[in-house]
Structure prediction request, 106 residues.
Amino acid sequence: MDYIKSIEAWSIIRGLDKSNSDKQLIKLEEELGELAEAHNKEWPDKIKDSLGYMFVTMAIYAQQNGFSLSDCIAPAYSAIKDHEGKMADGMFVKTSDLERMNNNEI
Prediction:
């Protein structure tokens, strides 16, 4: 199933595709807050729920701005797929950022 296309169709039926994307952005912020709470309280079911709703909200936000979420994912993946670096304090840090950190540029 192509979930992005299904979400976009659902959105069109309800007129969300033509709605103000400012409201969708606010909804995304709300969902991010719920994800943060679920993460902090270690509620795995709520984490999963929040991630799903964030995906739906982002798909509709993209649609409202004239593109598909797929249009955003492809270039983002292309940009990260060849990144090299290392884990530092639980986060992946790109080699270029490590070099800037070592040169005190950050």
The chain is about 70% helix and 10% strand. The domain at 3-67 is CATH 1.10.287 (Helix Hairpins). The longest strand covers residues 85-88. The two ends are 43 Å apart (CA to CA).
